[in-house]
Design goal:
Number of helices: 11
Strand order of the largest sheet: 1-2-3-13-4-14-20-16-18
Helix content: 25-40%
CATH class of the largest domain: Alpha Beta
Shape: globular
Strand content: 15-25%
CATH superfamily of the largest domain: Zn peptidases
Number of domains: 2
Largest sheet: 9 strands, mixed
């Protein structure tokens, strides 16, 4: 029997010097750091469970920032040091002013706090065959069949006819009832099962059952619908017309929690992209007096193309930086604003797809991310021939790589799936228009855009460390 040969010491040294082998995040951690990972994960799970919508996420950030000494940029005349600005209740910017002038550039981390979901239509409530139902419209890239036969909750805000906003949240507390969209039973779904997955569940069939008890008056029409409206009026002061001025989202009711027999994973809704929002926000809280002004921005509408006045295509960041210059004693001229952008460095903080070993045919293993191997750096996104992509230049990719290496960050570099399988985008391409350096950087997920996404605890914690190193660079 031939013995396997071991490489010589010279060969070992050569391999170590020249090759880049994947490194497990867990293998790089000390025992003390492993304890930090567990504590950080518990706080992150609590954040996911408290904040199922973009409104709730930024509200949570504002409350915590205020307790940590950050002040509203709109208030007071004193020179700012740690500030935030909330806009339209759904987009937020937080900054720690650096020791150098803002015109020498900033360190910006941009994430988003919206997630794929179902939204109620403007006229959602109706009655059919003795049941009251709500019609919905899916938001972002979803597989529609993910949303049937599962526990669902309603979260959002309704602006009543008197102009008073009312918060609605049903299905999250243990004592709450849940809602659901029933699936068609297999006994009657022969034709349905012959259709493509993208077609067998039309969007118009995403209707939630919300009641079956009729109003006592047997002579009136739509008795169940009327009974539901009476319930809503008693609890929230809502009438049917108020749905027109409402933002009510349908989200999974189940809680985020640890996953895996070894509890190494985190399972929960909305990790795309609240994992990056949370880790960048906590990194901001730990930033004290950086050389360059550190900014974290939390956008809405990324899942539908960053449109609207709260998305990354809006002028909110320009407004925030202009106000920050004014309060800092800098002339808020167009030239100075351009200097801030052109001298700035940014991370588009967004997740990427982790390799799923059950579906190896859609991944290219040399260039796709692995769960548990650290934060991922994505040089370009887009689809096919890099269409609609922001493609970071070699100099900036090298700068980020050196920063992470020097800071002891476990990282990997990957795209998202095989070239011809599909693709996606982030806020990077919109911010790149300003002239700043930007690259995508975030943890990998399994089951992205599903109601139950998976992340690795050590990747999440490493993401926080990476963002902290960047903000203080």
């Amino acid at each position: 029997m031939m013995r396997s040969k071991k490489p010589s010491e010279k060969t070992k040294a050569l391999r170590e010097r020249l090759l880049r082998e994947p490194v497990r995040t867990w293998d790089t951690l000390t025992e003390a750091e492993k304890n930090e990972v567990q504590a950080y994960s518990r706080d992150y799970l609590a954040f996911l469970n408290r904040n199922r919508t973009e409104r709730k996420a930024v509200e949570s950030f504002v409350n915590l920032a205020s307790r940590k000494g950050f002040r509203n940029l709109d208030g007071g005349r004193t020179k700012p040091s740690r500030v935030f600005q909330l806009f339209r209740g759904k987009v937020l910017a937080v900054a720690v002013v650096g020791s150098r002038p803002l015109t020498e550039g900033m360190r910006l981390i941009a994430s988003h706090v919206d997630s794929p979901r179902l939204d109620l239509k403007p006229n959602p409530l109706y009655e059919d065959t003795g049941l009251a139902l709500l019609k919905s419209h899916y938001y972002g890239g979803v597989k529609k069949y993910h949303w049937v036969a599962r526990s669902l909750a309603l979260c959002g805000v309704v602006v009543r006819k008197d102009g008073v906003p009312v918060e609605v949240e049903v299905g999250l507390a243990p004592e709450d009832p849940i809602l659901t969209i029933p699936d068609l039973l297999p006994h009657l779904s022969r034709k349905q099962m012959e259709q493509k997955a993208s077609e067998f569940l039309p969007g118009e069939n995403l209707n939630l059952i919300v009641g079956s008890t009729p109003y006592p008056d047997k002579e009136t029409e739509d008795r169940v619908k009327l009974a539901v409206l009476e319930l809503l009026e008693k609890k929230y002061g809502i009438i049917e017309e108020d749905f027109v001025s409402a933002e009510i989202q349908v989200v999974p009711a189940e809680s985020a929690r640890e996953a895996g027999l070894d509890r190494s994973l985190l399972a929960g809704y909305g990790q795309d992209d609240r994992v990056c929002a949370y880790t960048s926000f906590t990194a901001m809280l730990e930033s004290t007096r950086p050389k360059h002004t550190a900014v974290a921005i939390f956008y809405d509408k990324e899942e539908i193309g960053s449109e609207g006045n709260t998305g990354a295509q809006s002028r909110f960041l320009e407004m925030f930086l202009t106000m920050l210059m004014e309060k800092s004693g800098l002339e808020p001229s167009p030239t100075n604003l351009h200097r801030v952008f052109f001298n700035g460095k940014a991370l588009s903080a967004d997740v990427t797809a982790a390799i799923d070993p059950t579906y190896p045919e859609v991944y290219e293993k040399r260039n796709n991310a692995r769960l548990g191997y650290g934060i991922n750096v994505t040089k370009y996104t887009g689809h096919g021939g890099k269409y609609l992509a922001s493609d970071a230049n070699a100099e900036y990719a090298g700068w980020v790589r050196k920063l992470f290496n020097d800071s002891g960050i476990a990282w990997q570099a990957a795209a998202s799936g095989k070239v011809d399988e599909g693709g996606g985008g982030t806020v990077a391409k919109f911010l790149a228009k300003s002239g700043m350096e930007i690259i995508d950087c975030g943890p990998p997920l399994l089951g992205m855009h599903s109601p139950l996404e998976l992340s690795a605890k050590d990747d999440v914690w490493m993401c926080h460390r990476a963002y902290k190193a960047f903000l203080n660079s």
